Amino acid sequence: MLHPHKSSESTAVILKVIRELTDDTTYAVFEGSVSATINGQLKINAEPLKVHLTNSRPNYALIDVMWEDSGYENYRDMGLYGRMSTQWQEVRMVAPRTFRVSGDTYQLDIQY
Known about the structure:
This protein is of the alpha+beta class. The chain contains one helix and seven strands; from the N terminus they run H-E-E-E-E-E-E-E. It has a seven-stranded antiparallel sheet with strand order 4-3-2-1-7-6-5. A hairpin with a 3-residue loop joins strand 6 and strand 7. The radius of gyration is 13 Å and the shape is globular. It starts with a helix and ends with a strand.
């Protein structure tokens, strides 16, 4: 589990993105450009993937990437997850309209 301070910072990033996309802070669905680096190697480069962001009140947010919809049935074997949470993964902005979700062995850059 992330340190509570890191978790709240990560949640704030997701809420900012939801607000930018929807003028609300509840939920957003969008076709994003997703890149995945696993164990230091770029495995997926700017693939268009559907992403769901959900404010899971009161304390965290969920990031769902629909890997199967784009043919990545083996995403778990690659070391990726379909659902990530700001309780467990760190999220930060890395460029305008791009946030990074970091786990122990992977990072996803999601452009919206």
